Amino acid sequence: MAIEAGKIEALIRAAFPTAEIRVDDLAGDGKHYAASVVAEEFKGLNRVKQHQLVYKALKGKMDGPSGELHALALTTKAPE
User: Fold this and answer.
1) pLDDT of residue 1
2) What is the CATH number that goes with domain 5-77?
3) How many whole angstroms separate alpha carbon 31 and alpha carbon 24?
4) pLDDT exceeds 70 at position 16
5) How many CA atoms lie within 13 A of 74 on its CB side?
6) b/e per residue, 48-58, with b = 16+ CB within 10 A?
7) In terms of Cα–Cα distance, which of 3, 25, 12 is closest to 76?
8) How far apart are CA 37 and CA 17, in angstroms?
9) How many helices (H) and strands (E) does the chain have?
10) How far apart are CA 24 and CA 56, in angstroms?
11) Computed over its alpha carbons, how large is the radius of gyration of the chain?
């Protein structure tokens, strides 16, 4: 199963409504993406915690071998 970039962005946006979000399909197959998320909610958190929040926002779409999203190169940070 594949997932559209817009769906990934919508899931992240639901958790971080004011975030600056960019999602790119890296392989054109709907399973390998890169995402950049800049969110106020990340202030004071290390990258591991930031990434955990984004993965939680994806609501299981990356879980297991049958997940809709196979790979996500994730860049996160708090706004400057």
Assistant:
1) 66
2) 3.30.300.90
3) 11
4) yes
5) 23
6) eebbebbbebb
7) 12
8) 11
9) 2, 3
10) 19
11) 12
